[in-house]
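QA checklist item 7 of 12: single-chain prediction sanity check.
[x] sequence parsed
[x] length recorded as 576
[x] structure emitted
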Amino acid sequence: MKTVIWRYGTAGVLLLVALWLWLPGPNAAQGQNGDGEGTRPALLGYLLNEQGQAIAETEIEVFFDGKEDVIAAAKSYEDGGWDIELPHLPGRSVRVEYTHPHYHTRSVELIPEQLAALGRGESVNLGEIDLKNKFTAGFWVATLTFLAVLALIAFEKMPNATAALFGISIVFATTFFGSELSPDLYVFNFERALTYINWEVIFLVMGMMIVVSVIESTGVFQWLAFMAYRWSRGEPVVLVIVLVIITTLASALLDNVTTMLLMVPISLEIAIALNLPPSSLLIPEILASNIGGISTLIGTPTNILIGAYAGISFNDFLINQTVGVILALVVMTAYVIWHYRDVFNQGEKGISPTLYAKLEENAKIKNMVVLRKSLLVFAVTIIVFAIGEGLHMVPAVTALLAATVMLVWVETDVQKMLSLVDWTTLVFFMALFMMVGAIQEVGLIGVFAGLMGDVVGSSLYAGVFVIVFGVGLLSFSIANIPLAASMLPVVEYLSGNVPSAASNKILYYGLSMGAAMGGNGFLIGGETNLMTAGVAERAGYPLSFGKFARISVPVTLLTLLVGSLWLLIRFEVLGG
């Protein structure tokens, strides 16, 4: 009875969350109707920073006739819009004051024509009002804390989730304790921090974790590794090509780390049997896993972040990035084969009976019924991802529905499945969203966006190369997930300045390619790299920083170039 309650209770919760994400939320309350005409005169407008980005949560107060009594007040919305319905008509003057902890206070006096319109009972749109950034102590606390979090993650001084939690704890401590000593130490409160968490990303990742955990348990990956060895007939060059293809396809549909966790042990066995250095198989697989995931929405965590932020669908990623990914993989594979040409010529060739028998034994499917059901659910999930945009269904809803079906129909041990969900990663995402929100709140991202805008100007070509190579080179040593999350508002700003970039979202695709491909640069550039190196080291075959970089750096630079050129061809030449 307890198992049944767990099973259907969990499924019910997932369905409720999916319904919550699917149904449209209520619109923000407005002080007037859609055409700006209310029952009483009103003031409205938009608040922007110096880079033209919206400023939310700004206190707006209205004063009449030079007095200090507040006649009406409101706060700006997430899009920077605001509106205030006036309780009565003004006398001889109206002053509107805008106050935000991280921007200089600004007052605006209405001109005679605007006063006359209010006197006639009309609403007045003050248009766009820009506020200048104020570099308070809170600005520097948020900035330095964010840089410290990046450093802790890059140098592996703390687990990712711990580093992100540590950072946001500093921000909250500064806000709630420091601001009692000085108002300038205020960053943002907990309620405001929660608004920066993208729940679509959280539930999409959680749903796919449940789906993938069931597929993993069937042993299908071990079967694929056996087939790779069988198809290659023990020829090293053919084997590398087959392993790259399998890793790419798996990474496009599953989590990269999960893919490599399953591929590494098998690749080590094959390399040893063929008298090959394990790095000759592991490095191409790492590179392929990071590149291959770019082609789908669910292939990399950075794509999930970008898709949710920019409204890029599963089909959009598939259509606009797949050819570029294939070209990059061809370049990568050719370079790896060239680099290891002497090793592959000297290694053992042909099928090893001992290894063949061992791989064949490990390749037995553990539960054929579960495999059939889980693959059916997964196939339907991919189809729904593809058609979900027409149903106005965000990807998170699809993932949660798939997870619910898995719980009810395929794998009924709910506690086991939930234990396989990487809750640490979900906590990391939530803390990271709030940490990025902190530097966005204080205006750091706006400042950085302005500097990038000065470099890019209105040139689409410059925008693509700056984003792809800039983010790519930073991803060499900065974890690409927090880097991509912090760059999203910057790309939004640049897209607004570059003609056609806002409509086709080319710069967001550039961010996707730069973050994922750039993660191949150094061993510390991505979780997949570090995890693979760790497993190989525990097996007695360490993958050194230098050994990895000798191949990864030229491959990364080549693939970043290929990715940039493809995006320009796709959107400029082919008219994407």
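[x] summary fact logged: The mean pLDDT is 85.
[ ] second reviewer sign-off
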